[in-house]
Design a protein that fits this description.
alpha/beta, 4-stranded antiparallel sheet, single chain, TIM Barrel
Length: 363
């Protein structure tokens, strides 16, 4: 596989309402789409989209280092066999020292290119068969009244898993809201909570004690100190998921702590998609539920992440890709869809890559 050129497209898409991540307010989503082409006129795409408040890198810093990608990849020859391609990519990334969001995008573009050369969906690079219908957890957002209304609408539409961020309101509000939600969800709908480390241990314990009768799939990052997650779990019995605290628990360790119920993976925070695949395998080996989630990227990334989920996640695992509805536009002419609570990866492939020129400008 001989690479011929690299194109970059920058986009700016407003949010429907401002987004707050770790106290940083964003009114728009900004990113860069990388398109890597070969000499046979095939092209693969990836999305570079660092999220303010979550990623350390910025669009400005990334733009100033795009030449590193050009210098190492443009006109290069890459192997076609997957294992050899992975090894070559890892060697290239070790030399380039890319930001995680950039490494993620480049890895996805090269894999997408490989799939398109073979005229197959992305998931078939890894497995011949997959879970074609990937469930998506419905994201609940807004005031308590809006959250309850959204929950009813999503359940009626076919969603079987819902996710709510807690810690945004006084804890008594969260307690009452979760109680009301579990009355709506009943026994057939799974409810996930994400405290995003907003609570101290006393507040988290108060919350847990007051919703003890509520059925939860898990709660993410329940207290503000990762070192206290295990104690929270032991004192409350609630299933705990880890997300941004993954580096805390894997530093110097080959395995994950056995008390973890779920591992939430944000691929663009990890780097190459092969790192996400590694952690999925590690979690499955330890009987920990792996979950892929987005960081408010556009449909381009959501479609690709759905393909990875279909190939590697246990059947029936809901992914956190219900975020496109927060954007007022999109990068693709054919957007990611999960209207009935599922996305079908057999129709969500990137074979028909077409950018929306309204938002995407060639750099």
């Amino acid at each position: 596989m001989i690479l011929s050129k690299i194109n970059y497209y920058q986009y700016t898409i407003p949010y429907k309402t401002p987004l707050y991540i770790n106290k940083i307010k964003s009114k728009r989503r900004e990113g860069i789409i990388i398109e890597i082409c070969d000499t046979q006129k095939n092209s693969g795409v990836g999305e570079i989209a660092p999220l303010p408040g979550l990623h350390l890198e910025t669009i400005e810093a990334i733009t100033g280092r795009l030449h590193v990608i050009d210098n190492h990849i443009d006109r290069n020859t890459l192997p076609e066999q997957l294992d050899a391609l992975q090894s070559t990519m890892e060697e290239l990334f070790e030399k380039m020292h890319l930001y995680p969001s950039v490494e993620f995008a480049v890895s996805m573009a090269l894999l997408d290119l490989s799939a398109k050369r073979l005229r197959i969906p992305l998931y078939k690079l890894f497995k011949k068969t997959c879970n074609a219908q990937v469930p998506v957890n419905g994201l609940l957002k807004g005031s308590p009244g809006e959250v309850l209304a959204q929950a009813r609408e999503l359940i009626a539409a076919g969603y079987t898993t819902l996710k709510l961020k807690v810690g945004l309101w006084p804890v008594d509000y969260d307690i009452e809201l979760v109680k009301q939600l579990t009355q709506i969800t009943g026994d057939n709908i799974k409810l996930r909570l994400d405290a995003n480390r907003k609570w101290t241990m006393p507040i988290a314990l108060k919350f847990a004690q007051n919703i003890a009768d509520c059925r939860l799939e898990y709660i993410e990052e329940p207290v503000n100190e990762p070192g206290e997650f295990k104690s929270f779990h032991e004192q409350t019995g609630l299933p705990v998921a880890i997300d941004e605290s993954l580096p805390f628990f894997t530093a110097g360790n080959k395995n994950l702590p056995d008390w973890i119920a779920a591992l939430i993976l944000k691929p663009s925070l990890l780097g190459s998609i092969f790192k996400t695949i590694h952690y999925i395998g590690l979690a499955k080996k330890q009987n920990i539920k792996p979950v892929i989630t987005s960081v408010y990227e556009t449909s381009l990334s959501l479609k690709m992440l759905a393909q990875i989920a279909a190939a590697f996640l246990p059947a029936g695992t809901a992914v956190g890709l219900d975020t496109i509805k927060l954007l007022a536009g999109d990068t693709l002419q054919e957007p990611f869809s999960a209207g009935d609570g599922f996305t079908d990866v057999t129709v969500a492939s990137m074979q028909n890559f077409a950018l929306k020129e309204l938002y995407c400008l060639k750099m």
